Amino acid sequence: MTQVSHHPWGEWPGQGTVDLWVVQSPQVKVEVLTLGAIIRSVSYRGNDGQMEDVVLGYDNLEGYVSDKRYLGAVVGRVANRIAKGRFVLEGKEYQLDLNNGPNALHGGLRGFNKAIWLAAAVEGGVQLSLTSPDGDQGYPGEVQVSVSYTLQGEELTVEYQAQANKTTPINLTNHSYFNLAGQGVADIYDHQVSITAQSYLPVDDTSIPTGEIREVKNTPFDLREPVLIGPRLKELQGPGFDHNFCLSSPGGPWTEKRAARVCHPASGRVLEVSTNQPGVQFYTANFLDGSIAGKCGCRYRKHSSFCLETQNWPDAVNQPSFPDCLLRPGENYHHITRYTFTTV
């Protein structure tokens, strides 16, 4: 039996009231904010029987309003990077704001993560909805978006849908940062990760895919069998993982498949992720630097957490060989991701 409740959590001056929704099964408790459709917390037991919150976040609304690292948020209209913030659609060039070096990232300066969504109870959870107007952050067309969080036992299902009145790129994901030892624990070096990808996307020095689809075999990106994150990070050039792992081929069907598994042996906690998306961005919090004061005053530092951002491939709007990221009038964007929280 899943219990669902909500209450006002804070007021964003000039924007409105932000509510906190609590979705709880006997095994897992999830908190969701109407700001950014943010997952504020996920708590479940380790093998010692103790409930622990495994998602990074803030104690108050002010933290989320000023946040620049997308903690727990739904990001859009287009998650990840668009090269030079520029794309051509139906013969017209669109220029977006640049908010990540020379590129556009996660929907723009005021993406879906900074919107207050409408919320309504659904069976076993909450559904949040948003209207993104024509021209929002430079994107064409009005888009009606919804995301639902439903909990059944150990499994949290996140379902995204969208419709547009003009052709527009779209790519939605959730940007939760996880540490299975508990949010606030210093690092994830003792976590084991596996990702069921045969290939990944190499990137340039601004994190834009080069266009090559490279096999993971005989590289540090071969995560098909479980590996400890700490030692593997030392094999990488650069600050850590921030790469798209290819779960299916361009043109392949969007069918649900297992994407990743992370285990924290000391606590026994396991997170398994499945999705119908063609990629997952594995990110090891390379740009957290201790400047963020999170829950209970914890300082979130580099490699203090990981993200598994299920999504289309980065910069797909500019790379014809990548899976199609365009949503056309009359079509329905449908993305489903399931997170299963267990112990071993």
TrEMBL record:
Per UniProt, which keywords does this protein have? Carbohydrate metabolism, Cytoplasm, Isomerase, Phosphoprotein
Assign the protein's first listed, main location to one coarse class: cytoplasm
Q: Name the reaction it catalyses.
A: alpha-D-galactose = beta-D-galactose; alpha-D-glucose = beta-D-glucose
> In its UniProt record, which GO terms are filed under biological process?
galactose catabolic process via UDP-galactose, Leloir pathway; glucose metabolic process
Coiled-coil stretches, from where to where?
A: none
- Metabolic or biological pathway, per its Swiss-Prot or TrEMBL entry: Carbohydrate metabolism; galactose metabolism; Carbohydrate metabolism; hexose metabolism
Active site per UniProt: H175, E309
Kindly list the GO molecular function terms attached to this UniProt entry: aldose 1-epimerase activity; carbohydrate binding
Q: Does the keyword Cytoplasm apply?
A: yes
Residue numbers binding beta-D-galactose: N80, R81, H175, S176, Y177, D242
Under the heading PANTHER family, the entry gives: ALDOSE-1-EPIMERASE, GALACTOSE MUTAROTASE
Purpose of the protein: Mutarotase that catalyzes the interconversion of beta-D-galactose and alpha-D-galactose during galactose metabolism. Beta-D-galactose is metabolized in the liver into glucose 1-phosphate, the primary metabolic fuel, by the action of four enzymes that constitute the Leloir pathway: GALM, GALK1 (galactokinase), GALT (galactose-1-phosphate uridylyltransferase) and GALE (UDP-galactose-4'-epimerase). Involved in the maintenance of the equilibrium between the beta- and alpha-anomers of galactose, therefore ensuring a sufficient supply of the alpha-anomer for GALK1.
Q: Which NCBIfam families match?
A: PRK11055.1
- Please give the family membership noted in the entry: Belongs to the aldose epimerase family.
Q: Which protein, by its recorded name, is this? A: Aldose 1-epimerase
